[in-house]
Amino acid sequence: MKEWVRSAGSPLLLLPKILQDDWDGIEISPDREVEAKFRWDKNGPATDFDRACDVEAYVGVIQVGSGEGVVLGDEANITSWYPLENTQSGVLVRWVYAENLDSVVKHIQSIVPSELEWESEGIVNFTSTSLILFDSALPGCGIEETAKVVLPGYEKDRDFIKIDLKAGSYNIKSCYYEPDKKTSLLLIILELVGRN
């Protein structure tokens, strides 16, 4: 958990890297019409960012190009990826509040997923193994060229992080994890349930 991603207040998007050019963020899509209820630009047409903002839950699966992406909605928490050892699964860790990075890492390293009460959020099918987590307001093309920002108290804080998973179907579940009075984390587990 050395890399953390933050947004400017927008939902985050977890997307197969091969689909990142199919995401236009707040830019108007030149070759397709986008449908969404939310509008960041009240006078303009719907954008992909508007579709991400339509997700009102902690997590939502949306169509992107020929595949699917996962929107991390609700609050714009700083987020990291924690792969679970000896499994084809991992946890997106969303920092609600904590004393410092060391305490977050300590608590995450001690979790036992089977002992937590998870809420089912759906199933996503990833068609490739290389994923990218980034601010949904940004267009996907060129995301890796965006500036990296280092914030005090974080080892690395950036506009995106790369995540490697096996291609397949993943069960998405969430739960709040509050191991003490000073720590609250929103955990989103991706559990492999079928391979492509």
Task: Summarize the structure in words.
The protein is mainly beta and 196 residues long. The chain contains two helices and twelve strands. It has a five-stranded antiparallel beta sheet, with no helix packed on it. The longest helix has 9 residues.
Number of helices: 2
* Spatial gap, N to C terminus: 27 Å
Q: Main sheet? A: 5 strands, antiparallel
Task: Please estimate the helix content.
Answer: under 10%
Shape: globular
Uncertain spans? 146-157
Instruction: Let me know the average pLDDT.
Output: 87
- Which H/E pattern describes the elements? EEHEEEEHEEEEEE
Number of strands: 12
Q: Radius of gyration in whole Å, from Cα?
A: 16 Å
Explain the layout of strands and helices.
Layout: E1 3-5, E2 12-16, H1 48-53, E3 59-64, E4 67-72, E5 78-83, E6 90-97, H2 101-109, E7 119-126, E8 130-135, E9 156-158, E10 160-164, E11 168-180, E12 183-195
Parallel strand pairs: 1-9
Antiparallel strand pairs: 2-4, 2-8, 3-4, 5-6, 6-12, 7-11, 8-10, 11-12
Short description:
The chain has 196 residues and is mainly beta. It has two helices and twelve strands.
Considering the chains and any ligands shown, give keywords for the structure.
single chain, 196 residues, mainly beta, five-stranded antiparallel beta sheet, 2 helices, globular
